[in-house]
From TrEMBL:
Pfam family, one: HTH_31
Stretches assigned to the HTH cro/C1-type domain: 27-82
Transmembrane regions listed in the UniProt entry: none
Name this protein carries in UniProt: Helix-turn-helix motif
Source organism, top-level taxon: Bacteria
Length: 506
């Protein structure tokens, strides 16, 4: 028996759909019959070990069709796994429909929509049973492996405040006491329809502590579940779970990787962090690249021009949520204090990336840009796909450039410090083109952000209003991180800046 098998047994309970359980068991059985570990099978099919491990855990949700197709091809190529996956999906949909009339705290489940305003980023799963617990699904992405957020839904009234009727003694309920993420949802109904408002379980417990018996749970209207808050919750939940699971490994790996810091040029392959979830590898690569740039910034001879490779909100959410990236932006901006012109940062976001991103993802990308602008960094965005492959760099415009890649890198990171003329020419051409052809070209941050919102097909007036609300109350009220490596400080600063910049720009 491999270490994977000893640690990853599949145990089915009443809360697991039987057909999904059979799919997970069959994947596991075939892998063991082929004498493959999770890591070996992952390498064979081109996915991460984490995806394979989760495919054998039915509580993590159904694996994607593409993943099951790859597993089927590697473990028999007879279509059995795909057939089981289709049966499990049919059974899941039927179970959801049959549960739709279940009572939750005296409220019909049919009153709770299974999606929110058509938002694809998260959706309520009402198949959890006839008690008060539902689930908010945070699906996988390109790096996120997906997770499920336990939730309790209760009826609420709206008199300008959201007052949610929770059970007596709810402050001491184990739902609010358990360490993992939870969400309390207040459901309002009026002539305009159903409204959903969320509150992080830790925040809910704090608000109920010491309250008299029968007191309702006060929520803010800023925490309406919509494209803005769901996008933030999607990113926080996925990053949080991965970083919490990998916390000890990440801590150990940072010491092991210290040797790389002694060299101005290094590349780290995925094998050095094979057991980490993809999101944890993102953190490791991002942290190393940020440190590399800061270590070598004093070698630059002019105001730096940055080039970054994020194209979608999933990757860009790291600017908003990784604590080290917030500190990195602050330190980078401080080096330019007192100068006539500040640093610039360029993105390449082709139209195809916009078309293939959900609305919550596009909001996350805009907020990441707003955060940079809040530090005095002028952001240019070009749309030409020819610039997608340009590596991430910091260029002084004269003699030297710092190369730092973790998005789209072959391994965990690839960094360098270079004065090679052809590379400097390439970097000068890229930054010059982005500056002269930016779809966000304008004189003020507000105008640049507004132009970018139009390009991303986002409702500017609505977004300004919602960012003002959320910035005032703070996003931790709905998406408080558990990992010490995450912070919502960047999200809140971005929201406040976007709202304030709009007022200044008028």
């Amino acid at each position: 028996m491999t270490h994977d098998d000893a640690a990853e047994g599949t145990t089915l309970g009443e809360d697991v759909e039987p057909t999904a359980g059979r799919l997970a068991e069959e994947i596991r059985r075939r892998r063991k019959a082929a004498d493959l570990s999770h890591a070996q099978l992952a390498m064979t099919i081109g996915y991460s070990r984490e995806y394979v491990r989760r495919a054998e855990s039915p509580r993590k949700g159904l694996p994607s069709v593409d993943l099951v197709r790859a597993l089927d091809h590697a473990l028999g190529d007879d279509g059995t796994l795909l057939a089981l996956r289709e049966q499990a999906d049919v059974a899941r949909q039927a179970r959801r429909r049959s549960r739709a009339g279940s009572l939750v705290a005296g409220m019909s489940m049919s009153a709770i929509p299974t999606t929110v305003s058509g938002v694809p980023a998260l959706a309520l799963d009402t198949s959890g049973g006839a008690d008060t617990e539902v689930a908010v699904q945070a699906p996988p992405g390109r790096f996120f492996t997906g997770t499920s957020i336990a939730a309790r839904a209760y009826p609420a009234s709206d008199d300008g405040r959201i007052l949610t009727t929770v059970p007596t003694g709810f402050a001491d309920d184990m739902f609010l006491r358990r360490p993992r993420r939870g969400l309390v949802i207040g459901v309002t109904k009026n002539e305009h329809g159903v409204g959903l408002f969320g509150l992080d379980s830790r925040q809910a417990r704090r608000r109920l502590a010491g309250a008299p018996e029968g007191a309702r749970l006060l929520m803010s209207r800023a925490y309406a579940l919509d494209d803005l808050t769901l996008g933030i919750l999607w990113a926080v939940a996925n990053l949080d779970e991965a970083l919490l699971d990998d916390d000890a490994t990440l801590s150990a790996s940072r010491g092991q990787l210290a040797v790389y810091e002694q060299s101005p040029r290094s590349a780290a392959g995925c094998e050095i962090a094979a057991d980490l979830a993809p999101a944890s590898r993102m953190w490791l690569g991002s942290q190393f690249c940020a440190s590399h740039i800061l270590r070598h910034t004093d070698t630059l001879t002019g105001m730096p021009a940055f080039w970054t490779r994020e194209q979608r909100g999933e990757e860009a959410s790291t600017w908003l949520l990784f604590a080290h990236k917030y500190d990195y932006l602050r330190q980078s901006a401080s080096t330019a204090s007192g100068a006539d012109a500040g640093p610039t940062r360029a993105f390449c976001v082709p139209a195809s990336a916009v078309a293939n991103s959900s609305r919550p993802e596009r909001i996350l990308l805009l907020l990441a840009v707003a955060l940079m602008e809040s530090f005095g960094i002028t952001v240019d965005v070009c749309a030409e796909p020819e610039y997608v492959a340009v590596p991430g760099f910091v260029f002084d415009g004269h003699r030297r450039a710092i190369v730092a890649n973790w998005v789209g890198a072959d391994g965990i990171w690839q960094v360098d410090v270079t004065d090679t003329p052809p590379l400097l020419r390439e970097f000068a051409d890229a930054t010059g083109y982005a500056r002269s052809h930016s779809i966000a070209a304008a004189a003020t941050p507000s105008e640049r952000l507004h132009a970018l919102a139009d390009y991303l097909d986002l409702d500017w007036a609505w977004l300004v209003h919602r960012c003002r609300e959320l910035g005032d109350y703070g996003s931790a009220g709905i998406a408080q991180p558990r990992s010490r490596l995450l912070s919502t400080e960047g999200v809140d600063q971005a929201c406040r800046f976007l709202a304030q910049a709009d007022q200044v720009g008028r």
